[in-house]
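hey can u run this one w/ NAI bound, need the structure tokens asap thx
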Amino acid sequence: MKKHILIVPGDGIGQEVTAVGKQVLDRIAEKFNHEFTYDEALIGHVAIEATGDPLPEETLVKMRASDAILFGAVGHPKYDNDPSAKVRPEQGLLKMRKELGLYANLRPIKLFDELLEASSIKADILRGADILFFRELTGDVYFGKRERLEDGNTAYDTMIYHKYEVERIARKAFEAARTRSKKLMSVDKANVLESSRLWREVIQKLAPEYPDVEVEHQFIDAAAMLLIKDPRRFDVVVTGNLFGDILTDEASQIAGSMGMLASASVGDSTGVYEPIHGSAHDITGKGVANPLASVLSAALMLDISFGLKAESEAIIAAVDGVLKDGFRTRDIADTTTDASKILGTDAMGAELLKRL
Ligand code: NAI
Ligand code: MG
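ok here u go:
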């Protein structure tokens, strides 16, 4: 199979982990006889530094011309501490999602058995947890009207959803539920928010089209509590942009670390595959970032964008193998880890390649 992949590392550890993700894609191409070609493009702080624009037109053109995108992260402490900055790295990310019509963010929470002890949640509660989140990505409070009033002391954001936005992501979630345990949980705050009442109404109206799927509605606050109380009760979850942002970070603790979680953003055109973590400036340049989220993002790309199931599973098996052999990056190591098996980013990549 011939595919053209755009590598967009972005900022901070995005650069470090995406390099490993690409090596793994390369090895897969070699092993399974595919022809992957690559190009690279700028986004975020590095793009602002080079061009003044967090998402340069050249990057967008390359994105549209590719079959899939392996993305790192955006962000720099410079902006985190300066809320008044007008041009910001995350504008690049939000614009990319909007421009490419990436309305559905899939976040599989897959727990590798070897990491049961790495989580701060008890192993007995976690064992067997396997969740697929569908987080809506192009609506909600992130895209609604916002303003700081002239007196400087008052600000607002608008939580807004249109029926079509809820419907298209709900359909994807219903379809995924069909291929899994046939259960769909929709998360909202319909007891308070009007946009959530619309959300719930749309899900309820669609449900009869999927009679084989059992729908459960939960409020976001209850869902946040249930997620750590009884994660196994979750299977496919569909929720809005803000609630999904928070719930999936919480769920990352089920998988042991942010460094283990991959995501796929799909919609109208080219899919974007990226770790859920950010640019992690506290560890940038130290060579200790966990590359497995990027590697698992590459695996999602092969499966979802290219339909290459066996190739995708080969990557997951390699990750499993590395963990079974006791290798860990710092973020997933614990007191029982053999110190000689705590690896940096590149060494972890090398162990993976050996198993592919
Ligand atoms: P973060 O996800 O970058 O880091 C949170 C914590 O997890 C840090 O202690 C970090 O060291 C650790 N961590 C994250 N990924 C790791 C990995 N692969 N291996 C080992 N440890 C890892 O979130 P934070 O610190 O809130 O934000 C840092 C910057 O990233 C900010 O500028 C923020 O705006 C940006 N950000 C970007 C995102 C994106 O591009 N999708 C998502 C979240 C934050
Ligand atoms: Mg987040």
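The mean pLDDT is 95. anyway lmk if its weird
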